[in-house]
Structures are given as structure tokens and as C-alpha cells.
Amino acid sequence: MKMFARAALAAAMLAAVPLAVAQPAAAQGTVKFGALYPFSGTLALLGDESFRGFELAVEERNAAGGLNGQKIEFIKGDAVDPNQAVGEARRLTSVDKVSAIFGTYSSSLSLAATQVTELANVPYFELGAISDPITERGFKYVFRTNATARDFANRMVDSIIEAIAPALNAKPGDLKIGIIHEDSLYGQTVSGYQKSRAKEKGLNVVEVLPYSAKSVDLTPVILRLKSAGADVVLQTSYQNDTVLFFRQMKDQGYKPKAVMGAGGGYSTRDTMQAVGAENMEGALDVDFTQYNTNPKAAPGITEFAAKYKAKYGIEPRSGHSLANYMGAKVFFDAIASAKSTDADKVRAAVLAVDIPVGQTATGWGAKFSEQGQNTRAVPFLMQWQGGNLVTVFPADAAVAKMKTGIGAN
User: Could you say which residues form the signal peptide (predicted)?
Assistant: First the structure.
């Protein structure tokens, strides 16, 4: 990925955007943040689900007195693509004068928006996008609480060795692996790390097949997998392409021994309902923490789910809301510790955070590298069983044993 120098970015943005009209500062007693997510377009479902976790964290904090005596207010920004993410980040920082931005769910949106905030010296708190370069560009004010694409890919490949092969009474190297992925930054990044990890572990990858997330026919992909005899399929996908894959896999009579997703569409009840619980049965998912997880490993998860249902009238649709809730709470605590929204003071406070693994509602800990990446966020392995996504690994977080096979028998 081509990265731009800070000076070049500044020059390009100044040339492209008219000067914003100055606006009055926030009223005394409030602190304003931006909430930048895809609220419309093809990513809207998980964008909104992610936002709900942030919103609940705000309400919880305000009920406890706010941040250093100030009530938290947030201004929403809708980003359906990278260009709009840039525009909304400019508006939030230049016009609305927010003290920080929280988001984003999508890696391509986060990469674009954080270029704006870094130039403006405004902290950006990423709570859900997983592409590694987000925190690998040398930016000073970008921080992320969730795991990265490399973490997801490594867990997926390692799960073939540690969980799938033993369950099938097979040697890991004897299994034929197919890697398929939507072709945006999300899919490209995860699949790249999957290929590297599989090679490192001596696994047999027989196909690597990219496709557009907007595809209306994945039959050619499925037929390639079927022809290659892929035993295990690793898919990196959003919701629509996940649904399409499962429907057309059934149409083509293709039943691999295991199918595993990298979060995204694999994590939502909407996907399961669209595909049918009987067809999704046994599908594996390496993902953010989901709600059927042992609360001893994720204290507060049960209480969060209850708060969610009380506010929105339904069960949480995905663990994305939980991840955003946990991340927002970590950063609110850091800002409170800084006793300021000054970017340098906030950075120092974030880098001082030290929460052991197993002490948050996601089960993650929090300890940030100099690059702003949380080094204590680890994705779990889950599986669809009986219409529910249940944690099956690691053992202390599991609530069920892993089953073999895809689809109802």
C-alpha cells in the first residue's frame, strides 16, 4: 500500500478543500466527539451495530458524571466510501471542532479518515477496523483497541492445526485449503497473512480466489474450490457475499469438511437467518468476542447484552457492538486520566493504560504499543450451532465443543 508523507498529504488536502468557516466552541460543560461509521450503503448493518456499542458507552459514562465533569456529546459522520470518510473527517475536525473521533468498522474508511485527523492533531480511536497498516504508518494520534488482520489470519490458520485437523483425525498437511476473499483492503490484507502463515506452517493451499463483494454470482469460485477438492475453506467476506456463498455452495452440492470466516458476515444473526440455521450449522468464525462466551473470561459481557436489549429492543446483532463498547470505555478512561483533551496528553494517557487480559467485557486486555496498537486483543474461535454463534476456543472462554461438518446432517 502506497503511503504518503505528512507534508504531501497536507498540501493535497489544503489544495482540495476550501477553508472551513469557524464555529463557536462547544458550550461549557460538554466535550464533543465524532462518531464516524458507515450508516448507509452496503456496510451499514455492521456500521450501525458498531456505533451502538459506542453509543451505549457514552450513555453509561454520562450517567456516571461524564468526562472530568463534562457531558459527552457526539456528532455522527456517515462514510460509505473512502472519499466520504475524508470529507466527513474534515467536517468533524474543522467545522464541528470535535476533540476526537471514534469509529470506524471498515479498514478502508479508517485509513482515509485518519490521514485527515493526524494532520489536524486530533486523536482517532479505532474500535473495529482490522487492517494492520492503520497503526503502522508512524501516526502519533491514531489508537486502536481491537485485534488486527494478522491476528485474525494467524488464528484462522492455527485453528486448522489445533482444532480442525484433530477433530477430523487428519494430519494438518494432508488437508487441502482454499482461501477466498472479497477484493477490498479487508479481504486482501487478511488473505495475504493467511497465505504467509499457511506457508510457514507447512499447510497445503490449493486455491486463492479473490472476488468482488458486490458479486451476484460466486458459482465460478465454488466450482474452482470443488474441482480442487478443497477440504477447508477460509473466507474473508462481508454480509451479502457470505450469504451468496452459502446459498450457492448448497446449490452446487459442495460440502467441504470445514468453512471458516474472518468475522464480517459470519458474525451476524442476519446472515444466519438469511442463509438458514440448518445451512449455517457448523460454520466456524474467528472474530471479535460474541455473546455466547464464558462470562468468567469476559466480565461484563452479560450486563452489556442486557443493556443493549433494553435500549434497542432486540438481542445484539454481532460482537462488533461489544468491541466498540469495550474500546470506547478504555479510551474514555484514558481521557479522564489525562484530565484534558489535548492530543499529547491523551496520547501519554493511552500509552499508560495497562489492563490484563480477561478483565474487560470482550475478554481482551489493553496495553498499547508506541504505534497505538492494543497488544492484548486476541480473536476467539466460534461456531454456529443450533442457530447460535458459540465460542469454542480458547478453553477458558468456550461454552461448547467444536463440531465437524457443514450444514445439518
Answer: 1-22
